[in-house]
Amino acid sequence: LFVLFFFFSSRRRHTRYISVTGVQTCALPISELRGLKAVELYLPNTLAYDADFSGADLNRANLSESHLSGAHLSGANLNRANLSWTYLNGAYLNGAYLNGADLSWANLSGAHLSGANLRVADFHKTILNGADLDGADIRYARNIEKIYVNRETTFQNTIVTPEQREILLEKLEPQFLEKLEPQFLEKLEPHFDVRY
C-alpha cells in the first residue's frame, strides 16, 4: 500500500508579489530587498506596493509605469533611473539619490523626499501634490515649471537656483496667496535655500 500526503500552506499575507512585464512572480521577502544592488535593472510595469528598497543601488534602473506606492526607497541610489509614469504615492525617498532621474508624468503625491538629491531630474508633468521636499536639492532640475503642486506641498529649505525659486513662487502664488493667512505670507520667502 502506497499513500502520499500533500500539505499546502498559504503564506500570501507574508509575501510580496512583483509583476514583471505581466508575469506574476513571487518576490523575495521584503527584508531581503534592502541594500539590493541591481544596476541597470529592467522592471517596467512592476507591482511592489510597500516594498522596502532602502539603500538599494538601482542606478539607471527602468521602473517606468510601475506601482511603488508606499515603497521605502530611503537612501536608495536611483541616479538616472527611469521612473516615468510611475506611481510613488506616499513613497519614502528620504535622502535618496535621484540625480538625472526621469520623473516625467510620475505621481509623487504625498511622497517623502526630504533631503533627497534631485539635481538635473526631469519633472515634466510630475505630480507633487502634498509631497515633502524639505531640504531636497532640486538645483538644475529640468521642466520645474511643469510640475503640479498644491497647498500641502512643502518646500522648507529646499535647495533651488534663483531662477527655480522664481518659478516655484509663481506656481505657488495663484493657489496660495489669496487663501493664506498673513503670518504664512511672511514665512513664504525663506522656504527656499537659494544656491548656484
Rg computed from alpha carbons, rounded to a whole number of angstroms: 20 Å
For the sheet with most strands, the description reads:
2 strands, antiparallel
Q: What structural class results from the helix and strand content?
A: little secondary structure
Low-confidence stretches: 10-32, 179-190
Number of helices: 2
Which geometry do the CA atoms define?
Answer: elongated
End-to-end gap: 82 Å
How many E-type strands?
A: 4
Name the helicity range: 10-25%
In order across it, which strands form the biggest sheet? 1-2
The whole-number mean of residue pLDDT values reads 76
- SSE topology string: EEEHHE
What is the strand content? 5-15%
Describe this structure in words.
It contains two helices and four strands; from the N terminus they run βββααβ. Helix content is 11%, strand content 7%. It has helices at 162-176, 182-188, and strands at residues 17-20, 23-26, 158-160, 192-194. A two-stranded antiparallel sheet has the order 1-2.
